[in-house]
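Lecture 7 notes: from sequence to structure.

We start with a single chain of 358 residues. Read the sequence below before looking at the structure.
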Amino acid sequence: MSSLFLFSIISKYVYSCIFAPMNLEDIKTVKKLLSTPQKIVIVPHKNPDGDAIGSTVALWHYLKNIGQDATVVSPNDFPDFLKWIPGNESILNFEKENSQSKNKISEATLIFTLDFNHLSRIGQMQDYLNNVVAEFIMIDHHQAPADYAKITYSDVSMSSTCEMVYNFMEYLNDTDKITPEIATCIYTGIMTDTGSFKFKSTTSRTHRVIADLIDKGAQNTEIHHQIYDTNNSSRLKLLGIALNNMVILEDYNTAYITLTQEELNSCNYKKGDTEGFVNYGLTLKGIKFAVIFIENSEEGIIKISFRSVGDFSVNQFARNHFEGGGHDNAAGGKSDLTITETTERFTKLLENYKTDLI
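Now the structure, written as tokens:
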């Protein structure tokens, strides 16, 4: 048994002993908090994806529907392919609507943080949230959560934070309050974070939740169309460049893609255009580890996405070498080197993991 696989098993065991679904005491605390008027801010992570937007907007709908004053404040903008989600127009962008966002945060009596578990994941908002007096509630499914929340609902076995928001409403005996808008938001996040229900985090429970969401008004075909079937010519051109840049390392059952800032600019890159590109490597027979390296000249870093199949933990790989983390089969990281230096370093690191990958 490889050391990386053994570490992953031990980590999951230790984690499961510490963090579990919401306990009765936490549920009572949440019910008490929500039984009185609150000024609530809901925060996703920086560069929010389908699960982050779906979960925060779903929770926003729910809290508004039970009479609470709630606002979603995102650290920055989110991809165009998510801007059809019902309620997305209400989201405040901390970067572009800074004063209004700060006012909402300073007035907040309760802050929900969704789909992340460390305040470093919210960029410039971190310093501001570090100084608020509001209580925090965390809902998240990533590993190694920080200890900043009054209530921490953390469960790495969950397919998505959106599935946890459904559970959260169930704990409060409020699934009857799931409207078609809420169902649509939750369905979207589960679908995107499970790779259209193909990742191993998709359980029979996940499918039962999805069935209930459809019964409550989620139009599954339309949601899929909005997310996956609305390509523009620039994005398809960028996908062609990405696939042309793919490097296959057969000795390590690994494939990686690079995209430079120049290549992004040539295709009029917009946030979210590279969503899903990293998964193409895993469609190749025998490939267990897929990576995409994307140059971001504005931040001066290389953004990295890691994906794997089987027992190879990209979460641990990202934590060990690229200041990142996430899930066992899906994680992210970054590099301060050039894109060439980063890929060279990555390739050299693979020698240490050869037994895990063959």
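The longest strand covers residues 289-296. Keep this in mind for problem set 3.
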